[in-house]
Amino acid sequence: MQNIAFVGLGAMGAPMAKSLISAGFDLGVFDVREENMGALVEMGAAGAASPREAAENADALVLMVVNAEQTEAALFGENGAAEALGPGAPVVVMSTVGPGPIRALDGRLSEERLRLLDAPVSGGVARAERGDLLIMAGGPEDLFARLRPALDAMGSTVVHCGPSAGDGQSVKLVNQLLCGVHIAAAGEALAYAEALGLNPESVHETIRHGAAGSFMLEDRGRRMLDRAFLPPKSALDIFVKDMNLVREAAAERGFETPLSDAAHRLYEAGSSMGFGREDDSGILRVFEEGMGPSQET
């Protein structure tokens, strides 16, 4: 498998596509923002005017768009990629869309004689740039093995989470539950330190060495202290979406998620306050500015 179509070249997608090029794969690329293709074209990728054009002559299609709606549009909308792919071609969905939508997509792709690998990622932009992502894959073992060289180009930890579409998404939602709660907790902790009359910088430097230290406290906490909200490395609105996916999947199983519910309200408050397209570390300001608009469930 040498020729790959890659659709979705945002903050995560662009470095992932670059990793594939660096590993020797031939890429056709598309993004709704034409300017996002420039650096990849300079590296040797073929820029396309549509998902369909990107997928022409491709052995596989990788999708790294924002949500389930964009995934459907890239595949089946006007000039969608599905019609350009040959029978049996793999479609690799690396976006976080939730297990329900991915299972529905698997059924539709099967009707088109296409195969789906569910492979969401975690690690953030810096790790994407190093090809150091965690990739959580769900799908048939033979398809996973077939795509493994491409996955290894983008991730240092590539895990086959189960044989069915949706297995990768389910693991990703557990990941997002923890990430979303951790970021919110870091914001509350640093705002709390200031409310106690402490220097948040000193508090952060102290507690990061103890049992309360975590990747999210180190990474997002640093951004909070630096007030590095623009440009966003990961937009706050992504956690509005992802925490809602966590809650929806839990509700389908009759499982209560009180911490996720609380975190979701905080992200919704941040979005309502105008911070949605800024970095998710900006949730700090929800605590600083008194929780924003009332968020009732």
What do you see in this structure?
Belongs to the HIBADH-related family. GO terms for molecular function: NAD binding; NADP binding; oxidoreductase activity. With 297 residues, the chain is an alpha/beta fold. It contains 13 helices and 9 strands. The protein has helices spanning 13-22, 38-43, 51-55, 68-76, 99-111, 124-129, 141-154, 167-195, 200-207, 215-226, 236-252, 258-275, 284-288, and strands at 3-7, 26-30, 46-47, 60-63, 90-93, 115-118, 121-122, 133-138, 155-162. The strands form 2 sheets. Strands 3-2-1-4-5-6 form a 6-stranded parallel β-sheet, sandwiched between helices. The chain has a 3-stranded mixed β-sheet with strand order 7-8-9. Strand 1, helix 1 (13-22) and strand 2 form a beta-alpha-beta unit. Helix 8 (167-195) packs across helix 9 (200-207), helix 8 packs across helix 10 and helix 11 (236-252) runs antiparallel to helix 12 (258-275).
